[in-house]
Amino acid sequence: MATQELPHGDSAGTLLGHPKGLFVLFFAEMWERFSYYGMRALLIFYLTKHWLFSDSDAGVIYGAYTALVYITPVIGGYLADKYLGQRKAVLFGAVLLTLGHFFMAFEGEPAAGNEGNPIIYVFWLALALIIVGSGFLKANISVIVGQLYPRTDVRRDGAYTIFYMGINLGAAIGSLLCGYIGETYGWAYGFGLAGIGMLLGLIVFVWGKPLLLGRGEPPAILAKGREFGVYGVGVLLVAFCWVAIQFQDAVGVFLGTFGAALVCYVLAIATFQLPYGSYDRAPKPALMSYIGLSALLVISMFFVSNGDAFWRLPAVIGLGGVISVMVLQMIAKTDHDRDRIVAAMFLIIVSIIFWALFEQAGSSLNLFTDRHVDRGGVPASTFQSINAIYIILLAPVFATVWTVLGRKGMEPSTPMKFGLGVVQVGLGFLVLVWGANSVGIDVPTPVIFIFLIYLLHTTGELCLSPVGLSAMNRLAPPQIASLIMGTWFFASATGNFAAGLIAAATGAEGVGEEAGKQVVLDVYSDVGMFAVAIGVGVMVLSPFVKKLMHLNTLSDDTVDDDLLGQDEVGEPQAAGMRPATRPAE
């Protein structure tokens, strides 16, 4: 049935001036994030200390897992919009997540990889259930928040602030408690606590259904056969992820090949279809050249992703050719929509670099904290809570600063904020390297430098993550808005997988503790300097990219083109989410 907009006074009453359903969603999402981040804090240690994977293999597994977490919500969001409705999709996702977290508590005997312990397949199943469960839940729960309020309701910004506070509370508490218990008393207890947290979230969501006032229901009457068919698709997706997480190289090949094809397709629409009205009207020599060069790039990326060095040059030729054709078309014909899409693709590529470095937190940085930092006996996994705590403290500060600067006409542009974000994530690594070297390679690194790297990474995140979705929404023409948003989230998945490859490069087993520490610091020094250089480059290019955005000609031809809640967001958004929007003034 179709949903109705909620009047200012709802039949279930209000709490703190908001519909009570908001607090149902708050606690459900808080417990979901409690379980997810609690498990995430322990995962890299579980892989290296229990399953005895090498640092390199564990990093790639971790990267593939987090990449899949960002891909599946595209499907979860689509199935909810088309068939299930958001409420049933969230419920299904919560059930899968609860099962996945509890399966994580089955550990068996320590064993290297797949050798001698069939419970490893239960572990892969647990990860697959969590991946798909996140896809259904994370893609849709924020949508219900927006559905609780009319578009003109002034309470909507405050509602998203409250909701995102739940995200960060859950992330902080989950990392602290599950990490401490898991490392102190045993993996099963830490993962089991995460499972209990998810079960509590499921119970709260089921109990609070009446307070949601019919929001998030299916778009039409859903036949039982079709409903169970959708659940069957979810189960098949679990089976697919169960296989994919075991063959991480295949995930990398998919991301590299499909990512190249997706970028070429989006740029083809921007370069030829939109400016000329259709492909038939576009100049044939340029179009055919673009198609041929795109094919060369996609085919080359398939082999490059498989590790074939011979195809790197053809990939560079294909990429350079695609860019050249696009630039020539930009010179030949003026089109603001095309320029905005090019600006959006630029920001998307920058975001891949940011997330590839930022997501070291759960893998290589977690291991570095465990092995080479003077923690005073505090379990390393608990430091995963620092980012969420910083977000809670700093998000309101950043929101206020941007508002004040905006009123004075001094607020940095979106590309400038992206550049600042990448510079800060790079500086975080350089500060840690300097701190470790200042006391000597054979001396544990003072813990203050872990707090500093997380501080710089969090301030970088607040410069980039909250404006990302808003920028995609603002820049994308209506006819391809979903495609651009999907590309943004696919880039997040690619960044997470790249993070796994960087973490794998820090692996240095068998060379001694001091040499292993030096390997990690060398990698961090390289990626830190690379990030600072890229960030500075983005800042230098930001006036040109801002010009491509053509902000002066943007018009409010709809009432819902400005995303709400972005100033308060405390983590990179999951794909498939449809955040609520602010009406034009």
UniProtKB/TrEMBL annotation:
Main subcellular location: membrane
Keyword terms: Cell membrane, Membrane, Peptide transport, Protein transport, Transmembrane, Transmembrane helix, Transport
Region listing for Disordered, in residue ranges: 562-585
CDD domains cross-referenced by the UniProt entry: MFS_DtpA_like
Record membrane topology: Multi-pass membrane protein
Start and end residues of each Major facilitator superfamily (MFS) profile domain: 21-546
Annotated compartments: Cell membrane
Presence of the UniProt keyword Lipid metabolism in the record: no
Residues that span the membrane, as ranges: 59-80, 89-106, 118-137, 158-182, 188-207, 228-245, 251-274, 286-304, 310-328, 340-358, 388-406, 418-436, 448-471, 483-507, 527-545
Keyword Glycoprotein listed: no
Family matches, as NCBIfam families: yjdL_sub1_fam (TIGR00924)
Protein name per the record: Peptide MFS transporter
Organism: Erythrobacter rubeus
